[in-house]
């Protein structure tokens, strides 16, 4: 059952994978990018050591401990209250708030890095979230959006099979218009066994596409490419 705050937020779009199958999604997170290529790319763009970090759409907090290891402060923001509770249990020293990306419960100019991984910022339509990110970032602060590359096979092809409205070129044009630098980060997902791999495919895709993906994956590893998009808020004279 949704919380009162969630009922007040019609702009929240459910994430059927992690909302309905958090344990399977945990296995998916564990399998992703075992070499840490995405983290390495993000750190190269904006090292968060000693900074104030906000993780938007933090889910059950899987990524929060990485930031908490060296950041000055970390706040997780998640619109789905049950996931927020799981995040709090995972990282007791991190504040986790229940709110959407479009209405962050944070003060103006209070963050140095706003991180969002496969959460909300999917291109056209996410302008309210971008505006909120700009509001909470300090001058010189960075928004980092990490999403799956919908143009790269095989994973991108499976996504487009289930959602033919996905327009990879349109997504790229959108972020370019909004002055983001974008780069591809090739990785792979490595699962302990086929059963787990197929369970993850089952929560990410329709039955037909999941069966296709399983047939096109001979072992326990799936090549997956991410897009890392970053934009830094300009610095300048501040007025009272």
UniProtKB/TrEMBL annotation:
One GO BP: methylation
Key words of the record: Methyltransferase, Transferase
Domain (Methyltransferase type) ranges: 54-145
Top-rank taxon, per record: Bacteria
SUPFAM superfamilies tied to this protein: S-adenosyl-L-methionine-dependent methyltransferases (SSF53335)
CDD domains recorded: AdoMet_MTases
Alphabetical list of Pfam families matching this protein: Methyltransf_11
A GO MF term: S-adenosylmethionine-dependent methyltransferase activity
Keyword flag DNA damage: no
Protein name stated in the entry: Methyltransferase family protein
Species classification: Bacteria, Bacillati, Actinomycetota, Actinomycetes, Pseudonocardiales
């Amino acid at each position: 059952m949704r919380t009162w705050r969630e009922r007040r937020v019609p702009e929240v779009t459910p994430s059927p994978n992690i909302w309905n199958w958090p344990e399977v999604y945990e296995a998916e997170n564990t399998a992703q990018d075992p070499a840490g290529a995405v983290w390495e790319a993000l750190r190269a763009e904006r090292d968060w050591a000693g900074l104030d970090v906000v993780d938007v759409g933090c889910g059950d907090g899987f990524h929060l401990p990485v930031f908490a290891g060296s950041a000055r402060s970390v706040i997780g923001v998640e619109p789905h209250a049950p996931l927020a509770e799981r995040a709090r249990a995972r990282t007791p020293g991190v504040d986790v708030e229940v709110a959407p990306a479009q209405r962050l419960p944070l003060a103006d100019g209070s963050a140095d890095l706003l991180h969002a991984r496969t959460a909300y910022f999917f291109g056209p339509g996410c302008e309210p979230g971008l505006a909120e990110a700009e509001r909470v970032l300090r001058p010189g602060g960075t928004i980092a959006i990490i999403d799956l590359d919908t143009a790269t096979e095989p994973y991108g092809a499976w996504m487009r099979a289930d959602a033919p409205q996905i327009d990879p070129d349109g997504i790229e044009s959108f972020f370019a218009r909004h002055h983001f630098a974008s780069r591809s980060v090739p990785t792979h997902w490595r699962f302990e066994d086929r059963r787990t791999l197929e369970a993850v495919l089952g929560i990410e895709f329709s039955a037909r596409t999941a069966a296709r993906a399983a047939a096109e994956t001979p072992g326990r590893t799936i090549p997956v490419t991410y897009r890392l998009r970053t934009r830094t808020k300009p610095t300048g004279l501040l007025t009272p």
